[in-house]
Amino acid sequence: MSLLEYFLRHHDEILELTMEHLWLVGISMLLAIAVGVPLGILLSRRPGLSKPILGSASIVQTIPSLALFGFLLPAPWLGARADRLAITALALYALLPIIRNTYTGIVGVDPAVHEAARGMGMTDWQILFQVQLPLASGVILAGIRVATVLTVGIATIAAAIGAGGLGEFIFRGLAMVDNRVILAGAIPAALMALIADFILGMIEGRFRVPHS
Fold first, then answer.
1. φ and ψ at 87, to 5 degrees?
2. Which end of the chain is more exposed for a tag (fewer CB within 10 A), N or C?
3. What are phi and psi of 21, to 5 degrees?
4. Looking at residue 212, what is its pLDDT?
5. Coil, strand, or helix at residue 81?
């Protein structure tokens, strides 16, 4: 049976696992953005916290995926369900580029713009939401883009703890020594990463502030 025939014969399962993979990545990224962007904003206000926060996020990225799953497994609420554990681990992996780019984008705003806004009587919160975040949005989106592509790849490891996703095919194919089964998971995952990178790249380009 050729690869194409295998895809056609198992298209329902491939679609189901692709949707599981997309769900894992989507929820993980929403959680990472909800935590990472506020942390990046906090760092721009409290630079002294950059070492512990960025250092902790950097350490998480150095931990191998399966090892991180193992570290989180004993947690009562997380360990009770594989999908919760996988989403938490994926969100932790996605934090570093989001925090770093949010911080970099905000502190990179031209001080003259900040002073002009201050001279207009704007409060700190108004400056943040009406000036700094809009100007930094391109850089922030670049971090989200990197984190998303990274998460799509790492999510394939989630199948090892029973969380589903396209990694199911990859691990099954490795056990069977069958390249068709491996590619049934690897090809859709690669396409998902490329599509996410393309779409987020287009959005990022629209928000990127042009250089004079």
1. -60, -45
2. C
3. -60, -45
4. 44
5. coil
